[in-house]
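pinned: reference chain
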Amino acid sequence: MRQANLKRKTTETDISLKLNLDGSGQSKISTGVGFFDHMLELFAKHGSFDLDLNCAGDLNVDCHHSIEDIGIVLGSAVKEALGDKVQITRYSSIYLPMDEALALVVMDISGRNYLHYDVPVSNENVGEFKSEMAEEFFYAFCSNAGVTLHIKLEYGKNAHHILEAVFKGFGRALKAAVAIDENAKGVPSTKGVL
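pinned: its C-alpha cells
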C-alpha cells in the first residue's frame, strides 16, 4: 500500500497527516478553517484517497500559516507514499465542471516543482478562507511533492463553485497521475528516474 504518516510542528502549526493513495475516499479533516476542510474532503473523495488530517494553527493571526503548512505536509506525504514511482501513469489532465465554473488541472509527477495558477476569484473570502490562499496551498504542495501543476479557470462566477472545481479537479488529476500502469516497466522517464 502506498501510504504516509507525517507530523510537522512549528511555532505556528501542529499538523498530523495520514494518507493512503490507494484508499476509497474516506476522510477525517480538521484544520480550523471550515471551507478548507470542505475542499480537502472533496479532494480526498474525488481522488479516492484516504486522508486523516488534523491541524492546530495560529488562526488568531489568520489562516495563512495553517493552509500553507498543510500544503507542505500533504506534498511531502504524496512524495513519500509514491516511493520510487515505478509504474505510475505520471501525467494527467482533467476538466472539472462545477455548475457555471469550469477548471482545467494538468499534472506531471516529474520530480520538478512548478506551479502555474490562473484562477481569478472575485470574492476575497469564502467563509473564513481567504481565496488567495488556494494558490499558496498549491505552491507549497508542488514544492514538497516534486510536482508540476497547471491550474486554469476557464470560466466561472461564484467563488465557492470556482474553488470547488479546482479542488475536485486536483483530486481527480492526482488520482489519474498516481495510478499504476500495469503495462509499464520501471519509471515513466527515459532518464530512468523521477
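why pinned: The chain has a mean pLDDT of 97. The first helix runs from residue 34 to 47.
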